[in-house]
């Protein structure tokens, strides 16, 4: 792998990212920004964030294979990589079946997409694959730099590392809420987990694989499930939960800080950076 992500990055929807925020995140010591919300094939936002910073890595989490043609993504990758060598990781993935009317095997679609990226000269080490289950995790190890699991726990990270083996990148996303009041924290965490993820087969199947039950998934998610998928507490408590992924075999963890709508994320990101000793 040629892109240095550091131990900790942030994951944020593309409509919540600006060059100014990228500068602040870099100054706090985070290693990478992951662009969520299915960024389009042009990758213009990735380029803007890289232009605004000097060492921060930028990754897509993820470019959706159903909506972003591989040939266009490859051309955009070459443009971005030429301007910012070693700082851009192309994260791609199938998304979820409910989001498309295409009627074909998701696995075959992933393979075909990666075949096009190969043909268009996108290096294996410059791309990562969204992966949860064993088959796609194994494919991530074989055809990309590694895996970017979303909506997972340290238990999944341990499981994923066993499948990936030593070497491939493992970069899970972890939602966090900086609030010591469980009721208030769950009021932020539950909507972010429930809609849409607890209604999508690939995520619910993965949770069941980890031992969560139908009762945990129903009605917005049990308190235990929400607390696992959207860690809450003071900065030290949340930092320990994030570090648990590293202890379980992750190379990098991308934190998705959940805040009230319109709230400035920087105070929370600053507190977490201090607790994680990123400076």
From TrEMBL:
The keyword Oxidoreductase applies. Keywords: Oxidoreductase. Gene3D superfamilies: Luciferase-like domain. One of its GO terms (molecular function) is oxidoreductase activity. It comes from the Bacteria. Residues 20-118 form the Luciferase-like domain. Its EC number is 1.-.-.-. SUPFAM superfamilies: Bacterial luciferase-like. Pfam families: Bac_luciferase. PANTHER family: CONSERVED PROTEIN (PTHR30137:SF18), LUCIFERASE-LIKE MONOOXYGENASE (PTHR30137). This is LLM class F420-dependent oxidoreductase. It comes from Pseudonocardia charpentierae.
